[in-house]
Amino acid sequence: MSEVAVLDAQDVVVRYPGHPPVVAVNGVSISVAAGETVALVGESGSGKSSLARAVVGIEKIAGGAVRFRDVPVAPLGIRRRPTAMTGIQMVFQDPSTSLNPRRRVGDQIADGIATARARGEAGSTVDEWLDRVGLPTEVSTRFPHQFSGGQKQRLAIARALAARPSLLVADEPISALDASTQTSVARLMRDLVAESGAGMLFISHDLAVVRRIADRTHVMFGGRVLESGPTAPLWAAPQHPYTQALLAAIPEPDGAGRIPAAPSVDDRTVWAEVPPVTY
Fold it and tell me: Which residues cross the membrane (predicted)?
């Protein structure tokens, strides 16, 4: 692993209570280096979001280890997170999860700036972050309900990045946006993260967007990573049958692409039994 890695997760297990217990993440290992965007893709229920929440400490892991800059990530509790750990920030699928409806958006971005200053990071301004996410500076006095969904997600990104994180975890941050803005917002996140030297774990079910922004990609199914490698070769010549099925389901730009029928139980059994592929 590179010495500049900001995230090192090894053999992570996430288990939810039940009869029997549900194993959402089953021995997954991933790393993210500074300046790198690593994507985690797969269909709903594959374990992507559970792993993302484990990485930031929202979910308690049942096995394995998660380290941020070589320091163990402890589960979040009622006490304030240690200052050093505020270098991990998360952007959620629903920006309402990140934005307080009762506070002006400028004040919320200022909270991120204060978090960065507490760690001794260089100062910045609310206006600077609004400009960087493509919003006019005069909106700083408005409340979240006065913005569209896409604008709110840009504000959530500004709030997270204003804290100058070393690691940004983005859990399906574009799935609620309209198709015309999904790629632009994803690229905005990649560019801002790379510019700051941070690493990003980008969770999505949309391989078409991932192809454009990720340096490496991990493909999840059934709580496990089935294929992982640099994004370009993984896209060009997927080795695992599940990755092949995901790519086959993406329509061609002219709308003529073939969308296969839902996979059968036999298909899923084959996917689970084929050994993982890493390159």
Answer: none
Q: Could you give the CA distance from residue 159 to residue 153 in angstroms, rounded to a whole number?
A: 10
Enumerate domains of the chain plus CATH numbers.
5-278 (3.40.50.300)
pTM, full prediction: 0.89
Residue 257: φ, ψ to 5°: -65, 155
Question: CB under 8 Å to 232, separation ≥6 — which residues?
Answer: none
DSSP codes, 38-65: EEEE-STTSSHHHHHHHHHTSSPPSEEE
pLDDT tens digits, one per residue of 7-19: 999 999 999 998 8
* DSSP strand pairing (63-68 vs 5-16): antiparallel
Closest CA to 25 of 278, 220, 177, 241: 220
Given a cut of 80, is residue 177 above it in pLDDT? no
